[in-house]
Design a protein that fits this description.
With 462 residues, the protein is α/β, with parallel strands linked by helices. The protein folds into two domains: 4-222, Spore Coat Polysaccharide Biosynthesis Protein SpsA, Chain A (Alpha-Beta Complex); 228-435, Hexapeptide repeat proteins (UDP N-Acetylglucosamine Acyltransferase, domain 1, 3 Solenoid), CATH 2.160.10.10. 44% of the residues are buried.
């Protein structure tokens, strides 16, 4: 395994047309640089350095603890960036192994990097290549009769004959430290870009008789991200990998092509995922749960044998055997304990529904605790905000909240207490009591006829 890994992430990414640094863009739950670091982590290198430049303020906060950063203040090419990365390392032994990877390749896999890291005797350097149907924009790999690499020519410096070569340089390399440092001292910026190319190192080593071997991989692994459309293509491929892994583990998906699950999400075998589902962040789904169609859940948990469909969850915790939706919105701090329900057009925030509690439809429950087996009728609202502060509503066990009840917090509804439909509750209700707050109904005979006569007279006058 290598002693050092250097990831080159200083490029501007002009074609992204974004103020955000290119490698800070997100695809399938991780940033571009995050995917590269994830693949490189399998190498267990002594040191990993990320060379930053444009958008360094975006990139450096994304780096995990223990990852070093090196600032390339002037972008003078990949060869110069490699020198900047080497300068950050406290000590480099001549026989140390150094892996260098472009930071904009989120699809690069751990097995490919591991194949790159193993340099047998007689091989001075290795680099990853792939064969493209259309290699435009990529540096081409030149081989000798023994299939060794003799040079890498950047796209802008190609001759017409060399443009016919389909094997490209991917941007991932393995060197012995002493050979790398020596060759870097010999490269020049006499090229179309006026930059110091890391790719020239391969030619320098081959010219002195050293063996440079390719690690050939699939084109999809080595596609660099330089535009929003390439980012979308990479996201689709990364999502395909994640979904395939989950299905192989025993997760059922009706339509994987329409299922969007971050790599950071945990889905247990036996869960059922329907189309239109987006699971992001630290979300977890337990065995037997049915999620979807059309669910968005971020940083939420869904318990065993629960059903969530046509709903949005943000920072919510759903227990076992619960039901959510359709068209529910569960905001941060929502907890549904075992067997509870938040039904159609129910919105919750910072609210706990106890075991078996139900809010079947058309309610807003904010800053509330709802006891076991309580039933919240349609149209119920916890009036939790007085314009300055939030206040708590407490509903006891087995309480029955009548339809269209306004609960003006702070207020406590006792165990087994009942509210009459249409009531505005401003005071606590004792256990087992009925609270009704509404004016006595008054019927006015003949009102409709008199109203119609007034309207007719007005129209005649006009």
């Amino acid at each position: 395994m290598p002693d050092h890994v250097i990831i080159l992430a200083a490029g501007q990414g002009k074609r992204m047309r974004s103020d955000l640094a290119k490698v800070a863009h997100v695809a399938a739950g991780r940033t571009i640089i995050g995917w590269v670091l994830e693949a490189a982590a399998s190498l267990a290198a002594e040191n990993t350095v990320v060379v930053v430049g444009h958008g360094a303020d975006d990139v450096e906060p994304l780096l995990p603890e223990g990852i070093l950063s090196a600032l390339q203040t002037e972008q003078k090419g990949t060869g110069h960036a490699t020198r900047v990365g080497l300068d950050v390392l406290s000590s480099v032994d001549p026989d140390d192994s150094v892996i260098i990877v472009n930071g904009d390749m989120p699809l690069i896999s751990s097995p490919t990097l591991q194949a790159l890291a193993g340099r047998p005797d007689g091989v001075t350097a290795k680099l990853v290549t792939a064969e493209f149907d259309d290699p435009s924009g990529y540096g081409r790999v030149l081989r000798d009769d023994s299939e060794g690499i003799v040079a890498i020519i950047e796209d802008r410096d190609l001759t017409n004959e060399q443009r016919e070569i389909r094997e490209i340089n991917a941007g991932a390399y393995s060197f012995r430290a002493a050979d790398l440092i020596d060759a870097l001292s010999q490269i020049s910026n006499d090229n179309a870009q006026g930059e110091y190319y890391l790719t020239d190192v391969a030619g320098i080593l081959a010219a002195r008789g050293d063996r440079v071997e390719p690690v050939v991989t699939s084109p999809e692994e080595v596609v660099g991200i330089n535009s929003q459309d390439q980012l979308a293509e990479a996201r689709a491929l990364l999502q395909q990998r994640t979904n395939q892994r989950l299905m192989e583990s025993g997760v059922w998906m009706l339509d994987p092509a329409r299922t969007y699950i971050d790599d950071t999400v945990k889905v247990a075998p036996g869960a059922r995922i329907y189309p239109g589902v987006h699971l992001e962040g630290s979300t977890s789904v337990a065995a037997g749960a049915q999620v979807g169609p059309d669910v968005f859940a971020v940083d939420s948990t869904i318990g065993e044998d629960s059903t969530v469909w046509y709903s949005v969850m943000r920072g919510a915790e759903i227990g076992d055997n619960c039901e959510v939706g359709p068209y529910a919105s569960l905001r941060p701090g929502t907890v549904l304990e075992s067997g509870s329900k938040a039904g159609s057009f129910v919105e919750t925030k910072n609210t706990t529904l106890g075991p078996g509690a139900k809010a079947p439809h058309l309610s807003y429950l904010g800053d509330a605790t709802i006891g076991a087996r309580a039933n919240v009728g349609a149209g119920t609202i916890t009036c939790n905000y007085d314009g300055y502060e939030k206040h708590l509503t407490e509903i006891g066990k087995d309480a029955f909240i009548g339809s269209d009840t306004m609960l003006v917090a702070p207020v406590r509804i006792g165990d087994r207490a009942i509210t009459g439909a249409g009531s505005v509750i401003t005071r606590d209700i004792p256990d087992g009591a009925l609270a009704i707050e509404r004016n006595e109904q008054k019927n006015i005979p003949g009102y409709a006829d008199r109203r119609a006569e007034r309207q007719a007279a007005k129209e005649a006058e006009d």
